[in-house]
Design brief:
By secondary structure, the protein is mostly helical. It has a domain at about 50-120: Photosystem II 12 kDa extrinsic protein (DNA polymerase, domain 1). It has five helices and no strands.
Amino acid sequence: MTHPRAKYEFAFTPVQVRALCVLLAAGLPALGASAFGRVWFGGTIPVVEAHVAAAREFLDPNTASDGSLERLPGVGPTRAGAILQYRREKGPGAFRTARDLEKVRGIGPGTVRKIAPHLAIPRGDI
């Protein structure tokens, strides 16, 4: 009579054991490296002050550089260049509200809604 658990038993071949050891030896340090710096079991998350400052930064499209404008959501080099060009054509104070950005070619109401919270000018009726 066989043991009831006998049908669930299995054995590794020596090649499989070596392969498993190699995988574990390679995988455990990688797992440890990926977990490094993470917070486990209710600890605190480290705060990077530069990220906090960038999140609090408000840009004035009347004075911001093209690099600063590119940090706005949905604004890349092309839209930043269009904002600068519009600003050159209309002069200082071209943007009194965020809604005025819709006058720039390539910027519509959807883009204005995304970037308005990051601007240092009134939102307007968006």
